[in-house]
Design goal:
Shape: globular
Number of helices: 2
Radius of gyration: 31 Å
Low-confidence stretches: none
Strand content: over 45%
Oligomer: single chain
């Protein structure tokens, strides 16, 4: 629901108030299997049998003594977003004006991830399976087994992995609140190269908190040896895993939480944190619109000063509250100018220094502080250091810290852009651009020496620190600002109105763009690596027709392989090399233009996105037993998202 109220009693004063609310509910059940085949897996480990294939990676492989873990994961999310804002502008004179703007938004989100486990028996006590895995090069692997997991007689609610639990319940709560206030004054000139000068202050205050709310599900009523036959009332059928081939029984586990079958035990090492951020921006900008000699110039240049105070409250291992605060400042100049060197021909140059805050979860103060007894021994067995022996950083330190990093500073970049733009008509143009970004303070996970004063005091070792202030220097392992890098590239764009070429093609047009970029960062002590999310080569293009009310378009976009960040088994992000992909979209529509008829202004539009159902596929590099690369890779993830169809009916009055 969105609404806006505008009030303009005079041509010098305007007031706008707008509000927005959205409520979202999402739920689904995900069913599948974990197939532990490592040597350390359930009941002594699976045994490898027949392996076939001509390369370093198998085409097929058969394992015996396998105890699959059947997973039924019920997931859902319930979120509400509220936002309200107000904007007031007063033109005091013909040249002087003032703007006051306030915005507030809040997100409340509650998620559910309910895992229920099943198998043939607890910790390998039931029948073992023999599984044959087939690995085609496109990543669409399949599994063929001997046990029918769709038959209730073959499957039990149990702890197949021997983890001490028959399921897990995670109910994360997220709250995100943002206040933003802007006040600025501007002066408009009556002529000359500088058209307008604006000076202002922008303040943002953000608070985000996260509570994981994890709960272990232990065997309850009816379980024998941590196993229980799946209640017949919960069975709803079986899965259809398509080409994967390993279907399992489908049951609804919701009643197991309230029937006493599962006993709920709150996780003691639950994740909970809050991050706050207050940012003062002071800025001045000059807008340019005039002539530099005989050359028309448009654009702006300015300077911004940013003062940031950030803090986080989390937990130190042992249950103590950990509160860490940190401040930093930045000066950020920018310039963007466009020169019309000839009629409808422009050269644009731009320069800017920018900052980008690290992810809020990386700023969380959930940390673990330990001490090294060989450097700072505990001589009275009170679980605290009380003397210092051989302190010599960085090799010999007293304290080690790991986890999030509330003192992270933002990513910083200095960018340079230049482009040549030639416009032949409103619908036809050629644009060629080059860009370069110098990156610094990129966040990577490494170890470094750091001042651990706040954490040592929060852990309760303040007296020891006061007596031995040198031990504040310790070793931190986690996200830090350490790497430098660059993004450099060129881009070409062509827009064509085919009607400019010949009248017979009136209504047809196209847009084509090609970008090549080199994006890399260099962590200390290692060679350069790609920046996640950047492809070396991307292109996009479309062909459309718009005339006499008809409109049709087909568009395609391609991106080459890139380093992606995907969720791992533990819920964190890890790097994976995504393969290239091409996405195709299409649309067709018609707008009625019949004066005096109700159909006048009625628009019908049908669209389909991802027309070819392009998969998302990642691959991982193969390494030998000595750790060296074999120069080959194998597909590790294959995800299909399907096609999206959209139909729009619109009436304009």
């Amino acid at each position: 629901v969105a609404g806006s109220l505008q009030f303009e009693p005079t041509d010098r004063f305007s007031l706008t108030i707008d509000g927005f609310y959205t409520g979202t509910e999402d739920a689904g059940v995900f069913r599948g299997t974990e197939t532990p085949i490592a040597s350390w897996s359930t009941n002594g480990g699976a045994e490898v049998g027949t392996v076939a294939g001509s390369g370093p990676f198998a085409d097929t492989a058969t394992y015996s003594n396998v105890y699959p873990i059947l997973r039924t994961d019920t997931q859902g999310a319930d979120s509400d977003i509220y936002a309200i804002g107000g904007n007031m502008e007063w033109k005091a004179t013909d040249n002087l004006g003032f703007v006051l703007d306030y915005g507030y938004s809040k997100l409340n989100r509650n998620d559910v991830n309910y895992e229920s486990y099943a198998g043939t028996g607890r910790n390998g006590s039931g029948p073992a399976d023999t599984l044959t895995f087939t690995f085609p090069r496109n990543g669409e692997y399949s599994i063929d087994g001997l046990i029918d997991y769709t038959t209730p007689a073959n499957v039990l609610l149990t702890d197949p992995g021997g983890w001490g639990q028959v399921g897990f319940l995670r109910e994360p709560e997220i709250n995100d609140e943002l206040h933003q206030l802007r006040a600025e004054a501007y002066w408009e000139f009556d002529g000359g190269l500088v058209d307008k000068i604006t000076a202002g202050w922008l303040y943002t205050d953000r608070t985000k908190d996260f509570d994981n709310n994890g709960t272990f599900l232990r065997p309850g009523t009816g379980f024998v040896n941590s196993s229980l036959a799946i209640p017949a009332s919960t069975i709803i059928g079986s899965t259809n895993s398509g080409s994967i081939g390993q279907d399992i029984i489908a049951y609804d586990p919701s009643s197991l939480l309230t029937s006493g079958a599962y006993l709920l035990e709150r996780a003691t090492d639950d994740t909970e944190w809050e991050v706050t951020e207050q940012v003062h921006n002071f800025y001045i900008q000059a807008d340019v619109d005039g002539d530099l000699g005989s050359v028309p110039v448009r654009g702006n240049f300015g300077l911004r000063y940013v003062d940031t105070s950030q803090g986080s409250t989390g937990t130190l291992a042992g249950g103590r509250v950990n509160n860490v605060e940190y401040d930093y400042t930045n000066w950020l100049p920018s310039m963007n100018l466009s020169f019309e060197v000839m009629q409808d021909t422009f050269i644009r140059v731009a320069f800017a220094q920018t900052i980008t805050r690290a992810r809020l979860d990386q700023l969380a103060a959930n940390q673990n502080l330990t001490f090294r007894p060989q450097v700072c021994p505990d001589t009275n067995a009170d679980q605290a250091p009380d003397t210092v022996v051989g302190f010599n950083p960085p090799a010999q330190v007293c304290f080690d810290l790991s986890g999030g990093n509330p003192t992270l500073e933002p990513y910083r970049s200095t960018s340079y852009d230049i482009s040549f733009e030639k416009y032949f008509s409103p619908g036809s143009a050629i644009i060629v651009a080059a860009f370069y970004k110098d990156l610094s303070d990129w966040v990577v996970s490494l170890g470094e020496t750091a001042d651990l004063t706040q954490q040592i005091q929060n852990r309760g070792f303040g007296a020891f620190l006061a007596a031995n202030p040198q031990v504040a220097i310790g070793q931190f392992n986690g996200p830090i600002n350490f790497s430098d890098g660059k993004i450099a590239g060129v881009e070409g764009t062509v827009r064509v109105n085919f009607g400019d070429l010949t009248d017979s093609l009136d209504g047809f047009g196209g847009f084509y763009s090609l970008t090549y970029s080199d994006a890399e960062i260099t962590p200390p002590g290692t060679s350069a690596i790609p920046i996640p999310g950047y492809s070396d080569l991307t292109w996009s293009g479309d062909v459309f027709y718009e005339k006499n009310g008809f409109r049709a378009k087909i568009a395609a976009r391609y991106r080459g392989g890139f380093l992606s960040e995907v969720p791992n088994f533990a819920g964190g992000l890890e790097g994976a090399e995504a393969q290239s992909e091409t996405i195709v979209d299409a649309q067709i529509g018609y707008t009625f233009t019949r004066e005096g008829s109700f159909l006048n202004g009625v628009q019908v539009l049908a669209e389909v996105f991802n027309l070819t159902d392009q998969p998302f596929v990642t691959q991982n590099e193969l390494f030998g037993t000595n750790g060296t690369s074999l120069g080959q890779s194998f597909p590790s993830r294959h995800e299909l998202y399907g096609r999206t169809f959209q139909f729009t009916l619109r009436k304009s009055f």
